[in-house]
Amino acid sequence: xxxxxxxxxxxxxxxxxxxxxxxxxxxxxxxxxxxxxxxxxxxxxxxxxxxxxxxxxxxxxxxxxxxxxxxxxxxxxxxxxxxxxxx
Length: 87
Hints:
With 87 residues, this protein is mainly α.
């Protein structure tokens, strides 16, 4: 006797649970649970170079940046050494 009642209960849960969720949260889930300006705009993202000249200019920019950082590290190291020798 409990078998058919259980099946009716399960069927009711399968039908009413999603309907209850949709009724409670509504249909505008994107508006309610979205974070404004979460994704970056097209201008803020990286642009991958495809042309040969663009690739060369990007490599030159990266090389110059790397050499500038290296020069800065060497200067800081030299200053640290001179401070250690003075002490």
